[in-house]
């Protein structure tokens, strides 16, 4: 492979970069950019035709869905893995990092002499210097020529969707991954939710403003005995997707303001007001006293299922659906409903909230320079974007996990009505919940009407205008600068955020804190992101 000493250095640097949990990749269509090396492998059957006639085995490093590990230790052993091999004709040997250790094991993999043929991870945000650097370091291949000749399904999608095509390139026009593509109705999947059965009992409406939230949380504490009226998971930061903070027209991250300018929210003057609000609520016992200890989903589950908490910001199926299913077994009246992202004034539209893009960098696959037969790897990856492949990735095996009803794939009773396992666990055996494939808008994990309603409520924000895309590509030098500065800033910001909210530092120290972050280089990062965002818009 070559360049291994450089890769070892990289692996050390990687560990300080903010990494997304999940998988990765992207692609480019300008055939003047970086053609992949030719392989001397056996000629393949015609592009787009399956099964492929080959005796070769592909190796793939990727996270395994934690729901699937209930049944099998390896994707190859699942009904999905077996069916994918049958339909593509390609045998795949999967390597899975241990749960919670993907970042560390990715670093070791990159620093080793033993790269797999394909790697599913966040090359945009987890590799120092981003995808351009990964290609320059000869870790992953530019995919332009390979997609053009061996991936007719993805190529067709990119030709039809120019916005997606723009997302999947570096500024120099190189494609670098096979992408996870979300359907339009799969972009919003997290938001504020609240115990409707408690609200009904207390004769209170679903809160829409900050003041209404205060009234509700106070009632949950005083009249329902909730020890943590509002709770949320804490993973490097309080995961509330800018709920409450967004009411002050800022964000707990880099964002785009109304003029199209990149800003770092945590030093905005109005962020001080948001912190003062959270501090007041915390002091009055309305926010979980132990919020910084809720570092895994189990802690959040326990609070939401034990009547300790009545509100959170959580996922549609992994949160609301799961808690409703378990809650109703204990108390048939248990009900969670979505609340809008709160505003200061009644009737205002929320400034920001959770809204992702159709391209998900964290769940996409790159082809490495170690691939003995990159053409075969690309043909295998391209199957997921075909009509038949998309059905397998989204719905599984026809006649087992789904059946066609009036032309619509519908999960069978075997999947939806298992007495022992929930829907997510059953689906994980037959499909790939996240990964490089074309998401199907007909796929629906919702088991309660409250979930369908939640998407409509959480969509009512201006997030599309204000969320900074994760797939902008700073230059190699810019990326190194960003990684160095942001690691220090993120650590200090979060330390101070917790201290401000818990009252361990007075809010009066905010200006001093903001000054220090600027001294650490936040303005430099903001300019780099602005330049990269401007270049992205000109692609």
State the main characteristics.
alpha+beta, 3-stranded antiparallel sheet, 539 residues, signal, SBP, 5-stranded mixed sheet, D-Maltodextrin-Binding Protein, domain 2, globular, membrane, 2 domains, cell membrane
Describe the structure.
By secondary structure, the chain is of the alpha+beta class. The protein has two domains: 4-31 and 44-184 and 358-442, 3-Layer(aba) Sandwich (D-Maltodextrin-Binding Protein, domain 2), CATH 3.40.190; 190-354 and 463-467, 3-Layer(aba) Sandwich (D-Maltodextrin-Binding Protein, domain 2), CATH 3.40.190.10. The chain has helices at residues 4-14, 79-88, 102-111, 123-126, 130-136, 144-150, 152-160, 162-167, 196-202, 210-224, 269-283, 297-305, 316-330, 374-382, 387-395, 413-416, 423-430, 449-458, 463-466, 476-502, 510-520, 522-538, and strands at residues 57-61, 91-95, 118-120, 178-181, 190-195, 254-256, 262-264, 311-315, 336-338, 359-367, 402-405, 408-411. The longest helix has 27 residues, at 476-502. The radius of gyration is 24 Å and the shape is globular. Residues 1-43 have low confidence and may be disordered. This is Extracellular solute-binding protein.
């Amino acid at each position: 492979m070559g360049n291994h000493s450089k890769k070892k250095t990289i692996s050390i640097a990687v560990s300080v970069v903010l990494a997304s949990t999940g998988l990765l990749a992207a692609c480019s269509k300008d055939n003047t950019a970086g053609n992949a090396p030719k392989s001397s492998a056996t000629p393949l059957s015609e592009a787009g035709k399956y099964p492929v006639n080959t005796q070769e085995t592909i190796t793939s490093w990727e996270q395994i869905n934690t729901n699937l590990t209930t049944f099998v230790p390896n994707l190859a052993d699942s009904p999905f893995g077996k069916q994918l091999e049958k339909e593509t004709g390609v045998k795949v040997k999967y390597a899975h990092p241990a749960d919670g250790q993907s970042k560390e094991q990715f670093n070791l993999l990159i620093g080793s002499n033993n790269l797999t043929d394909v790697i599913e991870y966040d090359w945009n945000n987890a590799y120092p210097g981003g995808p351009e650097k990964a290609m320059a370091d000869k870790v992953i291949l530019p995919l332009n020529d390979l997609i053009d000749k061996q991936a007719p399904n993805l190529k067709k999608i990119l030709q039809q969707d120019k916005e997606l095509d723009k997302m999947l390139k570096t500024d120099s026009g190189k494609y670098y991954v096979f992408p996870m593509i979300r359907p339009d109705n799969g972009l919003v999947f997290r938001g504020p939710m609240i115990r409707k059965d408690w609200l009904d009992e207390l004769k209170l409406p679903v809160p829409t403003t900050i003041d209404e939230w205060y009234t509700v949380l106070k009632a949950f504490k005083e009249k329902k005995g909730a020890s943590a009226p509002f709770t949320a998971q804490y993973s490097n930061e309080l995961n509330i997707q800018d709920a409450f903070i967004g009411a002050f027209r800022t964000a707990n991250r880099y964002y785009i303001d109304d003029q199209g300018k990149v800003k770092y929210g945590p030093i905005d003057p109005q962020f001080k007001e948001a912190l003062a609000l959270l501090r007041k609520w915390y002091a009055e016992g309305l926010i979980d006293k132990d919020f910084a200890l809720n570092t895994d989903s189990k802690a959040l589950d326990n609070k939401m299922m034990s009547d300790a908490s009545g509100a959170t910001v959580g996922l549609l199926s992994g949160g609301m659906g799961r808690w409703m299913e378990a809650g109703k077994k204990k108390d048939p009246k248990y009900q969670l409903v979505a609340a809008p992202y709160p505003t200061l004034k009644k009737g205002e539209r929320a400034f920001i909230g959770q809204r992702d893009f159709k391209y998900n960098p964290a769940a996409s696959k790159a082809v490495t320079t170690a691939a003995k037969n990159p053409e075969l790897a690309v043909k295998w990856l391209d199957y997921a974007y075909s009509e038949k492949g998309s059905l397998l990735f989204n719905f599984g095996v026809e006649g087992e996990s789904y059946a066609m009803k009036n032309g619509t794939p519908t999960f069978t009773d075997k999947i939806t009505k298992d007495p022992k396992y929930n829907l997510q666990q059953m689906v994980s055996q037959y499909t790939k919940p996240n990964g490089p494939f074309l998401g199907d808008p007909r796929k629906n994990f919702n088991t309660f009407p409250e979930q369908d309603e939640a998407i409509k409520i959480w969509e009512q924000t201006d997030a599309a205008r204000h969320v900074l895309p994760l797939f902008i590509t700073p230059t190699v030098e810019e990326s190194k600068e960003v990684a160095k500065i942001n690691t220090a800033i993120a650590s200090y910001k979060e330390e101070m955020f917790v201290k401000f909210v818990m009252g361990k530092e007075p809010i009066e120290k905010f200006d001093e804190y903001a000054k220090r972050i600027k001294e650490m280089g936040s303005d430099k990062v903001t300019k780099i992101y602005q330049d990269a965002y401007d270049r992205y818009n000109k692609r």
